[in-house]
Design a protein that fits this description.
The chain has 363 residues and is of the alpha/beta class. The chain has helices spanning 21-25, 38-54, 70-82, 94-106, 155-160, 163-186, 198-223, 229-249, 253-261, 272-286, 291-303, 320-330, 346-362; strands spanning 11-14, 31-36, 58-63, 87-92, 111-116, 128-132, 138-143, 150-154. It folds into two domains: 11-160, Rossmann fold (3-Layer(aba) Sandwich); 163-362, Dehydroquinate synthase-like, alpha domain (Up-down Bundle). The strands form two sheets. It has a six-stranded parallel β-sheet with strand order 1-8-5-4-2-3, sandwiched between helices. A two-stranded antiparallel ribbon has the order 6-7. Helix 4 links the parallel strand 4 and strand 5 (111-116).
């Protein structure tokens, strides 16, 4: 099979770039729909609409109701079709961006703009949507032929968001290297349907190195709503490097464990990245990493405030039945856990989850 690398058409990042969205979007269409939740609409609707209007684009807005579910996609698709829009702009976190991508797909053409207001996931750059039930349980990945036409990240907005989201993005980004490397070693397929390129593999590594080198100081700055060079570096890693790294590098166990954890209602208050960090530690246990490596990763996670035990994501003293539910879902035949360079079974995942808690108590 061929090696494949794919990416968005354009990526723009910096202070105040939200006010320039019209300039970067003018060539993409004539009528835009902005999709965002109530909080984000209050933050960006006026500036985005003004910028689009100056660029000659008619703009409408629709409120996102909180879950990237099939029913929500259908509702916003109908709104977008009614306005004959040819540019779909998603502003906010990963779920609204995934919804916007699905809406663009449903209207059979047009352009899509990702405008993340938090650096919490690698969703902005990807050509896929993670679809959940209306109760927040993982259901499916929807894959598309087209990537976003533009990813626009305003670091002023990112630094003003709750620091928990920024920290969550670091967790999601840290997983990128371990999953891409597992996919590369097993010669499995990446997310865009080919074998990983050396570029995808190295970008994933750069993502990890950037987060380890700049994560602490970037969090210190975001705690004070400040934008520093470390904030710019981590925002790029959380968004661009992680997005390119997971798609063109590949996914493995960490995200499969995340998907399994979503089956338990007790985890629903944990963010995507927080659950992914438990998945990353689980993957490292499955791989038999040496004690010093595991201890270093857990210690770094603790230092920057990431969860390292099941109790940190709402699972206090989980039962065997609960762990088996997570493990069975993580090992579904369609899951990326099978990109590990060895066979993974549900009992192995269950026991790795138990070991994660033991390591957290010890380190």
């Amino acid at each position: 099979m061929s090696k494949i690398f794919k990416s968005p058409a354009a990526y723009v990042q910096g202070r105040g770039v939200a006010d320039e969205i019209g300039e970067h979007t003018a060539s993409l269409g004539e009528r835009a729909v902005l999709i965002a939740d109530e909080v984000v609409l209050d933050l960006v609707e006026d500036s985005v609409s003004t910028s689009l209007d100056k660029a000659g684009l008619a703009a409408s807005s629709v409120e996102f109701r909180g879950e990237a579910s099939e029913s929500e996609v259908d509702r916003i698709t109908e709104f977008t079709r009614d306005r004959d829009a040819d540019v779909v702009i998603g502003a906010g976190g990963g779920k609204v961006l995934d919804t916007a991508k699905a809406v663009r797909e449903n209207i059979d053409g047009g352009a899509m703009v990702s405008m993340p207001t938090i650096a919490s996931t690698d969703a902005p750059t990807s050509a896929l949507s993670v679809i959940y039930s209306e109760r927040g349980e993982f259901e499916d990945y929807w894959f598309y032929d087209e990537h976003p036409d533009l990813v626009l990240v305003d670091t002023d907005t990112v630094s003003d968001a709750p620091v928990r989201f920024f920290r969550s993005g670091i967790a999601d980004g840290l997983a990128t290297w371990f999953e891409a490397d597992a996919t590369y070693r097993s010669d499995s397929d990446n997310v865009v349907g080919g074998k990983p390129t050396r570029a995808g593999h190295r970008i994933a590594r750069l993502c990890y190195e950037t987060l380890r080198e700049h994560g602490r100081s970037a969090l210190d700055a975001v705690e004070r709503d400040a934008v520093t060079e470390s904030v710019e570096a981590v925002t790029e890693a959380n968004t661009l490097l992680s997005g390119l790294g997971f798609e063109s590098g590949g996914l493995a166990a960490a995200h499969s464990v995340h998907n399994g954890l979503t089956q338990l209602e007790a985890t629903h208050d944990a963010t995507h990245g927080e659950k992914v960090n438990i998945g990353t530690i689980t993957q490292l246990v499955l791989e038999g990493r040496e004690d010093s490596f595991l201890e270093d990763y857990v210690a770094f996670s603790r230092e920057i405030g990431l969860p390292v035990a099941l109790s940190d994501i709402g699972l206090d003293d989980p039962t065997d039945d609960q762990l088996e539910t997570v493990a069975a879902a993580a090992c579904d035949e369609a899951e990326t856990i099978h990109n590990q360079p060895f066979e993974v079974t549900a009992p192995m995942v269950r026991d790795a989850l138990k070991t994660v808690d033991e390591i957290a108590e010890r380190v």
